[in-house]
Fold this protein.
Amino acid sequence: MNYNQPEIDFALNAVRQAAWLVRHIQSEMVVPSLTKDDRSPVTIADYASQALVARLLAEAFPNDPLVAEEDASGLRPSDHGEDRQADFLERVTHYVSDLAPGATPQAVCAWIDRGAAAPAQRFWTLDPIDGTKGFLRGDQYAVALALVVDGQVQLGALGCPNLSDAFRPDPHGPGSLLIAARGQGAWVTWLEGNGDFEPLHVSKRTDASLARLLRSFESGHTDVDRIADFSTALGLQVKPVNMDSQAKYAVLASGKADLLLRLLSPARPDYREVIWDQAPGALILEEAGGKITDLDGKPLDFAAGRTLANNRGVLASNGWLHSAALNGLHAVHA
């Protein structure tokens, strides 16, 4: 991989800095959160991470749009002068200034709002903390960044601060930093330190009954009963592993798991994935030799806007087991 390529250099630097920042915030137990309209939590670390990456993007590629999860509307004090929002913004600014000296509340809000851009011919997409509930629990989470050109993911980067061991969150370990560029493979190094990059390769498992399956940690994000039926249909001998965030893609790309399912929750059957939740991990998996489609076997369409509007759920695999998994999904009407 050409680590001197400007886009790769930017992505590695941005994700490494943002991951360091959110881990620092977590270590100080600064985890109060606001609640967004969809009732999902957003923390000081979500806002700080997005502000930092947006600022770095503005410096490196000022003409590139950013399509990101957060906006600053929940941070700005309303006409009623809500003290909680003002305090929240002050604390976000404090942490951002650790890596962006001189940051002001106004600048922080402007950086965050750069993420409201619409997808274009070339754009970046960011989840400043993928797996906010995992972050709040001290489990897995990721800073996830991707470059999309002409509807195709060209670069993906994941910073997974608690991913040193595949299945046990380690907030004190070195963490993992993953990078993939189309046609250049997928690579991993420690998030902290100066370790060498090592190539990532999916498993070569072909016996579906021995597969290790990854699923969402939050039961409300999937269909638990249908996953149980799927496991029975494939004759899985190993209990599925529950894990937050795109750290699942890191585990799958490293060969430590074989299948990943994102089924539609019965409570939200019309839900469509947002692009920042899938683009970085999808390319990393593919460049490691894996395969990713929706539940119907269709390629993920990153040219449909801020969501995967033309896709239903996600199936990811080591490639060898993909057909068997699709047959299993069909058998249980998933």
